[in-house]
């Protein structure tokens, strides 16, 4: 994903709500006071201890509809630099979070800082000597068993689903009205995923054709499908599938979500939601 001013504006235009993997912080969240730096360590460590994601420093939330972005709130780079933010994160979270990246988005003499935080295979402690997780838009202290669960992540696969749209070769007028829907199962864990199964629920509003009167259509996908050789998912790699549905060309007008659950070996299932408006039409490499 490319982080730039267009990406930030699209969050506002599409009213993308905060969720497990996304958090908005006004510019005042970054300050050189102890209580503020402790909050930074709590927020960032909670993402690493959960499923990873993005914290956007310099995005103001709507005063009435909380958790929705309202406007950019750039940070004075002379007072709060990218280097200072990186130093605070690295010095106040133990152990350090490998793979964390701070992306500065310049806006004149100021900037927005997007902190990209990976999901970690070890528990990270904030500056107040506590461990935190993401829960309902907030960071909350973790129980002992939750900390132990994180420590076991290195022994289990971690399969996550991503979706993308693709166009048909246009042989007919219908081909210009619909998209393919592709799904990719990525193993973000550090061990092989031998057995994989996914349950994908699509809102029927976005489908060009569907059977039944339900509001959702369910698709099941497994690497153990009959007649196919089981295809294990190596760490950091993925398998892909073209789902047997057609998506309406006006999908961007529909405020709907794909919900999914991914199972792999004996790991806890991953549960996620993907907004239709966030679907990419780019090609996976």
Describe the overall structure.
- The protein is of the alpha+beta class.
- The protein has 2 domains: 5-154, Schlafen, AAA domain (Methyltransferase, Cobalt-precorrin-4 Transmethylase, Domain 2, 2-Layer Sandwich); 156-278, Immunoglobulins (Immunoglobulin-like, Sandwich), CATH 2.60.40.10.
- It contains 4 helices and 16 strands.
- The protein has helices at residues 5-13, 34-49, 82-92, 144-151; strands at 22-25, 53-57, 59-61, 69-72, 75-76, 101-107, 110-117, 132-135, 138-141, 159-167, 178-187, 196-203, 216-222, 238-248, 257-264, 270-275.
- The strands form 5 sheets. Strands 1, 2, 5, 6 and 7 form a 5-stranded mixed sheet that branches. The chain has a 4-stranded antiparallel sheet with strand order 13-12-15-16, with no helix packed on it.
- Helix 2 (34-49) links the parallel strand 1 and strand 2.
- The longest helix is centred in the N-terminal third of the chain and has 16 residues, at 34-49.
- Pfam families: SLFN_AlbA_2 (PF04326).
- Residues 18-142 form the Schlafen AlbA-2 domain.
- This is Helix-turn-helix domain-containing protein.
